[in-house]
Design a protein that fits this description.
The chain is α/β, with parallel strands linked by helices. It has helices at residues 43-48, 56-65, 71-74, 77-82, 88-94, 99-107, 118-121, 132-137, 204-216, 235-246, 260-263, 270-276, 296-307, 326-338, 362-372; strands spanning 161-163, 166-167, 173-177, 222-226, 253-258, 282-287, 312-318, 341-348, 383-388, 393-396, 402-406, 409-413, 419-423. It has 15 helices and 13 strands. It binds iron/sulfur cluster.
């Protein structure tokens, strides 16, 4: 069913990271208070521990479902990739599937296969099909329903591809699709048409053509590496790409969009961060969905990236029944700030084919922004945007705080609903 899934690297040219990147020591039991929601590890705690933290939850999961894997393997990102849960039998071993899930997984063909790292699987509810994280990673029948306005490529990325794998939509920046592989596959993925297999291919030659295009276009000052997930590429290959882009004088800075630090936090090895810090200014957008993702492991991966001087921003897709409430979103945004991740974008879910069961009304996003703005730190309030279908780019949406305008004044509504007059020049 999923035989056509791509390897975790450039097709035919690559292999996952070297053994030297593995941090294999058996970690001590984390202190019971080490909940990142309350208590991210201090610099000293992180420096003391050469190994990767393991929450009680993932430790119990490992012992139950992977009893032959010591922590040294569990903390090896390559082991995590090799032992991803990819089919019905693998899922049924760790989760009591509903009839809907079972039928949907059995029916799946093509890109966006099932793929879940053992670490991330440890965060899923064994019994509750409605648990938010479970809903984002296990297919259900709703995926196969096509509703009006949906499309396989709703953002028109293929149309804006300057060369294969390079989207040039905005004048001064490009989206560099470096790989079609992800360590886990999100069921609401905007690029579901191209990740995890299918007709899209990624190769070294494609990288070269994309780089040549960037070299020729001196207006490009910002390159965003995405995919697929660039942090699934072996460190030395990724370094080759970053170094190559860095030689282009008009490229002022690089960005990486990734979910790996959230779903495969063990990938953020010291070797990786040592390499990344050589290519500053380098920014990173991390894809978070729900506060249940804020584990000790993720506190560690984000701390390592932040300590490497990489400014971290978050991107979150608004999803029905998963994170579409002010309390859930507030908890997520507050948790991110404690991990030194600035909430950046809250996306209205794109109308990809089979996404109706994930999409909320736009009014829900505005309600959430209204519930955050003024009620908590401004840093905790992301930009709510719709990526305009057909390639229009991101359009920001804000609640209407201007009640009336004219005659040299604005009537403004504040977060408490009080009205204030401002003399408009
Ligand atoms: S990690 Fe990103 S690219 Fe991969 S499936 Fe999830 S949303 Fe899509």
């Amino acid at each position: 069913m999923m035989d056509n899934e791509q390897r975790p690297t450039l097709a035919g040219t690559d292999s996952p990271g070297s053994a030297a990147e593995t941090e294999a020591a058996e970690p001590p039991d984390p202190p019971s208070s080490l909940s990142p929601r309350l208590f991210p590890p201090t610099v000293k705690e992180r420096e003391r521990g050469a190994s990767f933290p393991q929450s009680e939850r993932s430790r119990a999961f490992r012992r139950r479902f992977f009893p032959d894997a010591p922590s040294s393997l569990w903390n090896d990102w390559r082991w995590q990739l090799q032992h991803r849960i990819r089919d019905l039998a693998g899922l049924a071993r760790v989760i009591r599937l509903s009839a809907d899930e079972r039928a949907a997984v059995a029916r799946h063909t093509g890109p966006l296969p099932v793929g879940i790292t053992p670490y991330y699987a440890s965060l899923l509810s064994e019994t509750d099909p409605d648990q938010p994280l479970r809903r984002t990673h296990i297919p259900v029948g709703g995926e196969y329903l096509r509703t009006e306005g949906e499309a396989d490529d709703p953002l028109g990325e293929d149309h804006d591809s300057a060369v294969p794998g390079l989207v040039h939509r905005y004048p001064d920046r490009v989206l560099f699709l470096a790989t079609g592989f992800c360590s886990t596959y999100c069921r609401y993925c905007t690029r579901s048409r191209m990740v995890g297999g299918g007709e899209y291919t990624f190769s070294h030659g494609q990288w070269e053509r994309a780089i040549a295009y960037i070299e020729q276009h001196t207006e490009i000052r910002d390159v965003l590496l995405s995919g697929g997930d660039p942090l699934t590429i072996a460190t030395e290959k990724l370094e080759w790409l970053l170094a190559r882009l860095r030689t282009i004088r008009h490229v002022e800075f690089l960005r990486i969009g990734t979910k790996v630090p959230v779903v495969l936090p063990q990938r953020v090895t010291r070797d990786l961060t040592r390499m990344l810090r050589r290519y500053h200014p380098l920014w990173m957008s991390l894809h978070f969905t729900h506060p249940d993702e804020l584990t000790p492991e993720v506190a560690e991966s984000t701390a390592r990236l932040a300590d490497a001087g990489i400014p971290l921003g978050s991107q979150t897709v608004l999803l029905k029944g998963i994170n579409d409430s002010v309390p859930v979103m507030r908890e997520l945004m507050h948790g991110l700030l404690k991990l030194r991740v600035k909430p950046y974008y809250l996306y209205q879910c794109d109308p990809i084919t089979g996404s109706a069961h994930f999409r909320t009304p736009v009014a829900k996003g505005l309600e959430i922004i209204e519930g955050l703005r003024g009620h908590t730190s401004g840093y905790a309030v992301p930009h709510f945007v719709i990526d305009a279908p057909g390639g229009g780019g991101k359009v920001p949406l804000v609640p209407n705080y201007v009640v009336e305008s004219g005659e040299g004044r604005l009537l403004l509504r504040n977060y408490e609903g009080h009205i204030y007059s401002y003399p408009d020049a």
